[in-house]
Amino acid sequence: MGELVRRHLGKVVAGGALAVVATAAMVVVTLPEGAGAGDRGDRSTAAGSARQDAIAPDGVVEDAPEEGDKGIGSDPLTDAETQRAEKAALDSNGLRSSARDVEGDRGPQRLSTNLAENDPAEGGDAARRAQIVYYDYKKDAAITKTVNLETGKVESSNTAQNVQPPPTKDELNEATQLLIADPLGKGLKQDYKKATGKDLTGPGDLELSGFIFSKQTNLRIPSELSECGKHRCFQVVAKVKRGPWIDTRSFVVDLSARDVGRLG
């Protein structure tokens, strides 16, 4: 009986030893080459390397695909479509020669060009159309033209006064130039000098934004701003490039009359 027990225990011990050896073999297989049993630094490096391998490589910047001549469906207008639509709009009804832009030059001031929304009744096969909005400073009128991009023809044209779409960058630059040149712009130039130590030479020295001013928004209107609403008037918001804001909210520039007024 004792002999049987010893034999049984011997099998158990031997089995346990084999299990330990097998486990050790598995550990050795997972360690990096040349790592010793007590080399914790190498094991940490291997683990870090594994984590690094799991991170996606840096992206590669590729050139944008070449833009086609025509868009599809509700795709934004292509450059070619925009050029064709604007040419057709300017050529219609003598607009190119009769209207004037913000600087008084021949031709209207373009405010925006966008893909027009089609009538749902036309279905999914409707032609793509462009909608171009201009401002004629000669007549103080907003002009909207819709061009069929397949036929190249102006399908509709609308002219409205007392309608003032948001300002463009060119208009804000012109309004700021008028403000700088006006006696009321003295404070703007002084604040710029104080902030930068340099003289304010033009709109390019500033970061600009702004919004339409209408006399209905303010009760205390100086006489030089009495036509705002009919005229195209802006309040300019100015900021020193990489610097502080300059408070110009009390000044209004009438671009139609090329005059500057102060509120309050």
TrEMBL record:
The chain crosses the membrane at residues 12-31. Keywords: Membrane, Transmembrane, Transmembrane helix. Residues 98-108 have a biased composition (Basic and acidic residues). The keyword Transmembrane helix applies. Residues 34-124 are annotated as: Disordered. It comes from Streptomyces flavofungini. This is Tat pathway signal sequence domain protein.
